[in-house]
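Provenance

Sequences were taken from public entries as deposited. Structures were produced by running a predictor on each sequence independently, with no templates supplied. The record for DUF429 domain-containing protein from Pseudonocardia alni subsp. carboxydivorans is shown for reference.
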Amino acid sequence: MRISGVDGVPGGWVVCVLSGSGRTREVTWTVVPDAASVLAATAGCDAVGVDIPLSVPAGAQRREAEILASARLGRARSSLFPTPPAPVLDAGSYDEACAAAQAVTGKKISLQTWYIVGKIREFQQVRLPSSVVEAHPELTFRTMAPSRAFASKKTARGAGQRVAALSEWVPSAASLGDLPTAARLDDVLDALACAWTAERVARGTAELLGPGTDAVGRSTAIAV
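Predicted structure for DUF429 domain-containing protein:
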């Protein structure tokens, strides 16, 4: 089995590809500049989990997948930014984006959402194979270790908790031993979490929150 997890980093994406099965699997890391390069780096994978919205709402209604994921995240729901409506992707500035969002939903978008608009746009501009699914790392971590009260991933405690949870699935020393310098620790842990979800997709054991398709035929689901 060959699976992959992908998370955004400044200026691009960090990609982990895991080959084989069990605790002897091989893990390789790369940082690539754009969505097209992500698809090239993960070509041939049985499943690819990406931490970015892969569908966008055409109107004011929030995606069902995000509503369901937010409810499961509980106190960690702030880690899930609402996907902006499609017109926002054409904006050239934060002010334009807020105006476009307000025209559709009656509300402006946050700065945090604006910072990922470019990355959402990238994946809207490529043709996705069916093996590529949307994943959300914080939801994944709480699924793989439901009894653990995770601290912020930006803290040493939170990072350690996530390494411990992942080590039940893949050896942490091997998987983190050769990281690219352009990636931050929380980003690579998120990418590994997306790969965990990708393996569940490949094995047919993943749950799809909000299944369906959007206005252009893309899957609206978040896999976990």
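The first strand starts at residue 2 and ends at 9.
The radius of gyration is 17 Å.
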